[in-house]
Amino acid sequence: MMKHCTRFFLPLLLLCLSLVAFALVAGAAVETGSCGDNLTYALDTETGVLTISGTGSMSGYQTMPWEADSVHTLVLEEGVTSICAAAFRDCVNLTSVTLPSSLSYIGFYAFDGCTGLTAVNIADLNHWASFSFAEADANPLTYAHHLYLNGEIVTDLALSDGLYSIGANVFSGGTDFVSLTIPKSVKYINNGAFFGCTNLSEIQIDAENAYFTVENNVLFDRNMTTLICAAPAAAYGSYTVPSTVTSIGEGAFYECKGLSDIVLPTGIKFIGRQAFSGTAWHDAQPDGVVYAGNCAIDYKGVMPVDADIVLADGTVAITDGAFNGQKNMKSIHIPASVTNCGYMAFANCNVQAVYITDIVAWCNIRFGRASGGKSVLDSPLRGAELYPNDKLVTDLVIPDGVSHIGAWAFNGCTSLENISIPASVTSMGSDAFTGTPYVQSQPDGMIYVDKWAVDSKGDFSDSTSLVLKAGTVGIAGSAFTFADWIYDAVIPASVVYIGKYAFESCSNLSDITILNPNCNICDDPGGFPFPDTTTIHGYAGSTAETYAETYGNPFVALQTPVRVTGDADGDGAITVSDALLVLRTLIGGGAADEYTDMNGDGELSLLDIVLILRSINA
User: Among 324, 387, 317, which residue's Cα sits nearest to residue 352?
Assistant: First the structure.
């Protein structure tokens, strides 16, 4: 009997042990963990399937817990709302991505370098169309080229009514699309939305759409001032851009292989990245700087080492990405006729010298995309010396009569040791002098260029209030971006301008008081100076009230003059007259108040006068 039991028991035992071993091996093949506050991941290391589930956003930047080359298939389940920056960067073995309708954001470079991608799977075409990608490398379709809607490959890009905006770079690289239909509800089409859709042969738009129009399979805004894109498969022969057009979008004629000639009007100011690359016209251009009309669009061929590039007289624009990556460029000559310099025009370059003929014209160049945005890689001056009329400038004197200094105008210029700004300047863009030796040499604290507040540096942990130097006339764009030490601020009556993004991301700024009723508060739409939760205090009928009403900030009307510490006369600025008033109060035996008791000891003394004078000169 025992022999019979053993005969049946041993095989059963071996089977059980085999099952246990299999389970252990199978379990070991799945890696799990957290990739967000409420998100988990499971990576099957044998199949390469990475599944992310839960609710909310992914966290981190370039710190994902999985090995990049181990991911072959990505599945995000419903509930996941965002993909963080660089999450799947260089996942070269990734072939398929499935994204949920709950997803609302994909970060910078999220799919950068995913060269093996062949499929992006979605469940809602309009939802996908509403995405905006800051860069094409954030979009998996750029590499995959094939978009699948509920398992079916998309060839007819038929967007349905209810879609409000088509996002930047959202269909970039979609080579299966042969037709595009835009519904009447669409009001915005963002930069590069159809870049690289090389097989498009037909573009249609709902007759009731009030914002866009199509002529000969070329898409324009309704006023025909912006040419958005052509259908590459339908473009051939010579094309004359309508005289009303002033801006041509990113990749507008990209890979229009049949386009043999292009005629541009004189009013063109902006041309997007690779607008004419891959056309028969571009292929026929000689090596060197290529011009489309009066715009320098790129450099064709291999640039010689230590090249000295001279742009043609009459050039009005340098387009997006025109010289991106041209590391052999040593110097460039830019004529006074240039009014616009595009996004990333000089990114990844090693320019050492910039030659110009007119400081006034340079101050008014607009750097960046036609649609706006923030970048410090648009100007060739970053890391270079400036030579007006062939003479190195170390002491920059902005000529009297200049009213505006543009964003990034002198950003990173290595030769500027001193800077002088005339009283005629009434507005200044973001980071105009950031990175210059003059700004870098300033001590910790508020950084000024003449009477303009341009930045701050150092430890402000003991501060909660922003106090500007007496006589401050303006706050440059981005001057206090991310200054989370500012809880409140009083902008004195002397300030005539508050720039774009001046207090952007100042998360603790609860109150700001603006004492100049005519202060120019960001004359560039879309560049909001204040967080939308900041309460704005100002006079009834002032520009402060208008701004608050326009952008939804809480507003409190001032009834009496507002003073800050040291402001004895209540004019909103600390001046020598305040020190004199304190002196008179001392002589007359007057008591201190919170505005004039600078050292907070409850009494007026000569020390308070000294502190007021120091504040004036700070």
Answer: 387
